[in-house]
Design brief:
Elements: E1 2-7, E2 12-19, E3 22-30, H1 32-35, H2 43-65, E4 74-80, H3 84-101, E5 105-109, H4 110-116, H5 118-122, E6 129-134, E7 139-146, E8 150-156, H6 162-172, H7 179-187, H8 212-227, H9 234-259, E9 264-268, H10 275-288, E10 291-293, H11 297-300, H12 305-316
Helix pairs in contact: 2-3, 4-12, 6-7, 6-8, 6-9, 7-9, 8-9, 9-10
The chain binds adenosine-5'-triphosphate, magnesium ion and fe (iii) ion.
């Protein structure tokens, strides 16, 4: 099916067009620069930017894909989770297009879309697979018998999300926003074994995560250096922090695969773009005989293609479309694939 996907859960206006598992267009207009000086996304500013970017971004995507609105089989939109105000802009636009064109509307889960996008790069997801979902607002281990109909949560963070920890540590180190990509880059010239930071919940027998203790430990370590009047070895701190996060994520992900006898691990969400996570996951999966699937970095961070990919999967699976009066749900649970 030919599906157009609309993503507005945060600061990216993402429009994607897919034909089944084939990506035809992935157009993103980001308001990230407008938020940089506030050190985080300002919802009102983001909502306004989505409103302005929506029509031109859809038009650009259609042009890139070489299709018209009439050609579409369905419209998919992120219904949640995310910022209530920004979600509403996307959902309203999707409803308007669906109504005007007489096409089915699918309100989809942003997190399941982070998983489904993998199909654009590596083909159908094995049923089941395990997914490590690591993003700015979420960190979960999922058992995914079928991304269109059956997503189960096995564990998640009890405090900060992995991406949130990256962003907060970047702020402690004065590196800018969003912190993930900057820490990734900075860490390349650092020693990951320079400082031993705590690995929260590593051996607690659950599939939950905790990153706020790690974040505080980094802040305390940096403060102590500064108080002593010593220079802060930024690259070493970044590398050592990143190592602690990635160590826990990969160990627990492999443990889930073994416990559930699943031989495919998928990693999705913005933090899946992290080069050290990709490297360590590969090493540990190879060692455990698990096949690893991670989309290219551009498909890990928020985009419209992921929404279109999940929409296409729902259509292909015969899942019923959404009603035209669906709400935007800022706290939609990860297990609700379609609203
Ligand atoms: P959610 O998906 O939970 O709603 P979100 O959509 O805001 O949250 P994503 O766009 O999926 O989040 O991911 C953004 C997060 O990914 C940010 O916290 C960012 O710092 C982090 N991130 C992006 N690239 C990297 C990287 N290379 N290394 C580490 N973290 C990264
Ligand atoms: Mg973003
Ligand atoms: Fe996201």
């Amino acid at each position: 099916p030919l599906v157009l996907g609309i993503e507005t859960s945060c600061d990216e206006t993402g429009i994607g067009i897919v034909q089944g598992h084939t990506l035809l267009a992935d157009t993103v207009a980001s308001s990230v620069d407008l938020h940089a000086r506030f050190g985080g996304v300002v919802p009102e500013v983001a909502s306004r930017a989505h409103l302005e970017a929506m029509t031109p971004t859809i038009e650009r995507a259609l042009k890139t894909a070489g299709v018209t609105l009439d050609d579409l089989d369905a419209i998919a939109v992120t219904a949640g989770p995310g910022l209530a105000g920004t979600l509403m802009v996307g959902v309203a636009a999707a409803k308007a297009y669906a109504l005007a064109l007489g096409k089915p509307l699918y309100g989809v889960n942003h997190l399941a879309a982070h998983v489904a996008v993998d199909q654009l790069e590596h083909g159908p997801l094995p049923k089941p697979c395990v997914s490590l979902l690591v993003s700015g607002g979420h960190s979960s281990l999922l058992l995914v018998p079928d991304v269109a109909t059956d997503v189960r949560s096995l564990g998640s963070t009890v405090d900060d999300a992995a991406g949130e920890a990256f962003d907060k540590v970047a702020r402690v180190l004065d590196l800018g926003f969003p912190g993930g990509p900057i820490i990734d880059r900075t860490a390349r010239s650092g020693d990951p074994a320079a400082i031993t930071f705590p690995r929260g919940k590593l051996d607690d027998g659950t599939y939950d995560f905790s990153f706020s203790g790690l974040k505080s430990a980094v802040a305390r370590w940096v403060e102590a250096k500064e108080r002593a009047g010593e220079p802060v070895p930024i690259a070493d701190v970044a590398a050592s922090f990143q190592e602690a996060v990635v160590d826990v994520l990969t160990r627990k992900a492999v443990a889930v695969c073994k416990a559930h006898d699943v031989d495919h691990l998928q990693i999705g969400g913005g933090v899946a773009a992290n080069s050290r996570l990709r490297e360590m996951a590969k090493q540990r999966c190879d060692k455990a005989g698990i096949r690893l699937r991670v989309p290219r970095p551009g498909l890990c961070t928020d985009n419209g293609a992921m929404v279109a990919a999940l929409g296409a999967e729902l259509v292909a699976s015969g899942v019923h479309d959404s009603r035209l009066d669906i709400p935007a749900d800022s706290s939609l649970p990860v297990t609700t694939v379609r609203v």
